[in-house]
Amino acid sequence: MGKWAIAVHGGAGIDPNLPVERQEQAKQLLTRCLNLGIAALRSNVSAIDVVELVVRELETDPLFNSGRGSALTEQGTVEMEASIMDGTKRRCGAVSGITTVKNPISLARLVMDKSPHSYLAFSGAEEFARKQGVEIVDNEYFVTEDNVGMLKLVKEANSILFDYRIPLGCAGAAVTDSPILMNGLPISIYAPETVGCVVVDREGRCAAGTSTGGLMNKMMGRIGDSPLIGAGTYASELCGVSCTGEGEAIIRSTLARDVSAVMEYKGVGLQEAVDYVIKHRLDEGFAGLIAVSNKGEVVCGFNCNGMFRGCATEDGFMEVAMWE
Amino acid sequence: MVGWAVALHGGGGDIPIDLPDERRIPRETALRHCLDLGISALKSGKHPLDVTELVVRELENHPDFNAGKGSVLTAQGTVEMEASIMDGKTKSCGAVSGLTTVVNPVSLARLVMEKTPHIYLAFDAAEDFARTHGVETVESSHFITPENIARLKQAKEFNRVQLDYTAPTPKEPEIFGDSQTGTVGCVAVDSAGNLAAATSTGGYVNKMAGRIGDSPIIGAGTYANHLCAVSATGKGEYIIRATLAREVAALMEYKGLSLTEAAAYAVEHSGPRGTCGLVAVSANGEVAMPFNTNGMFRACATEDGYTEVAIWPKK
């Protein structure tokens, strides 16, 4: 019998001026989710089930950029996406363009378990959701005041905003060129983030899940890395990985898949694989990831100035952190 | 001095060895025609991105392949097309899904890559994007062929998702695990070592509306980096979980395999027999076209004069 391990994240790239109370809220949410996962693992819930229940919690809480609290499209609506993968047989499920399903990660799971396909999107996905009887709400449910305000500011700045503000010198051009982002904003400046969870259970089974509302002010119909198997999410017999950050960079570098590929083909361990991938695969991109291995290890890696994360192992190690 | 190379496919799957002439010959002719197009484009110095786009456009326009015109139908009897394209040098990429009126999905994917800050647009919004950019659109009925209406009927009768190269004849194809074909793709490398890959499809016969397959997913159906360019075809669900196109490059990078070895290994280990195939070229001008299905419509050419147009495994 192996040892379990779990990690959660609430996004990579954090404004160093983030108010303390927001930092505290984030840490509390991460801690709560971690504890949920730990309790489940202690009662021998399987990795894939733990991933789903933890991500559901992250989606339901409006703090991070997923489910309720998702970033808004250019039209002020919410379009969510998510993916989940079970490392054991590499089964996977993903959804995009979700507008009324309360928990996209659960819909992704249903795609994996109850449909002959791996990925459903937009109205086809919503129809599948209704047939499956999942919880449906109005799109307004997902929209928070904070994000409405943020969208307005972004439109004024007329740039695509990653859903966090990054200081100069550590960001894509679109963000650094926008001065508004550097001065404090009149409304709460907490920047919401993609969420994810990776788990290895006592049987050594790895699983991963990622969920998001995407980029603030994104074009309607824009799909990012979170629902793309191999980019935002991947799990194999060896590991489970969930990524966050600049979606386009994560897609180009097939980030989540590469962690596993490096382990499989170069025979290195989890830490080395994550370090390698973060250092060498993200050429001009900024991102972070969390990963677990079938040996009960957990690793976080990011090349930005911070990542909301929490991790715990059966040995009793537990950490919730934001900065280096 | 390395030479150029180009390879293209019109889908892999359970292609019966007794495929009647009237179904085989038009496809072989089309493959040869597209190959010639690719060859002259490379000879006139066109960049592989342009080469792969124009070859895939040609395949999309041809009604006998499952992309663009001739796309298989969803459960509702509609078309939902998807495509992706990738530039090996910059790793820039573009993808689209859920298209119903865009004549050439691969060109829209290229537009997403070049004209938006994003990589992937889908469904209504992708269609709107096409219109605002003056991309050629037509009535959906343009894409629907009598053959595919018959295939859908047959699939519904058997109440299962079906491979789209089953001849609509009374003979029920051998149950080979529902092997799938369809999808078109092209990969190319020029003498400077620039690489590109593009893939386009209508998806699975009788698929659920909103179902996305491997073709628009970077790393699954399409991939290109500084080592190679890959376009895959087959059962989407297997190709996605195996990140098949990326796998070829990963094996070359991390295990030092040659293109041929990496491509063969990737196909062999991606799933059971009858699930996939791919075409690939390397920065060195090599070509590989492995498949674990009964057949794969394919063609390739290299600068030294070698050309091949084939359907079944070479003896």
From TrEMBL, chain A:
SUPFAM superfamilies tied to this protein: N-terminal nucleophile aminohydrolases (Ntn hydrolases) (SSF56235)
GO BP, one annotated term: proteolysis
Pfam family of the protein (one): Asparaginase_2
Annotated keywords: Autocatalytic cleavage, Hydrolase, Protease
Catalytic activity annotation: Cleavage of a beta-linked Asp residue from the N-terminus of a polypeptide
Transcription as UniProt keyword: no
InterPro entries with a match to the protein in the record: Ntn_hydrolases_N, Peptidase_T2
Top EC class of this enzyme: hydrolase
CDD domains named in the record: Asparaginase_2 (cd04701)
Active site: 194
EC identifiers of the protein: 3.4.19.5
Binding annotation for substrate: 222-225, 244-247
Record text on subunit structure and interactions: Heterotetramer of two alpha and two beta chains arranged as a dimer of alpha/beta heterodimers.
Name assigned to this protein: beta-aspartyl-peptidase
Species this chain originates from: Eruca vesicaria subsp. sativa (Garden rocket)
TrEMBL record, chain B:
Catalytic function, reaction form: Cleavage of a beta-linked Asp residue from the N-terminus of a polypeptide
Entry-linked Pfam families: Asparaginase_2
The organism's place on the tree of life at top rank: Eukaryota
InterPro entries: Ntn_hydrolases_N, Peptidase_T2
GO biological process: proteolysis
Keyword Protease: yes
Binding site for substrate: 211-214, 233-236
Keywords assigned by UniProt, alphabetized: Autocatalytic cleavage, Hydrolase, Protease
UniProt-recorded Gene Ontology molecular function terms: asparaginase activity; beta-aspartyl-peptidase activity
Residue(s) at site: Cleavage: 182-183
Residues the record marks as active site: 183
EC number: 3.4.19.5
CDD domains: Asparaginase_2 (cd04701)
Assembly notes: Heterotetramer of two alpha and two beta chains arranged as a dimer of alpha/beta heterodimers.
Protein name: beta-aspartyl-peptidase
Organism (species): Eruca vesicaria subsp. sativa
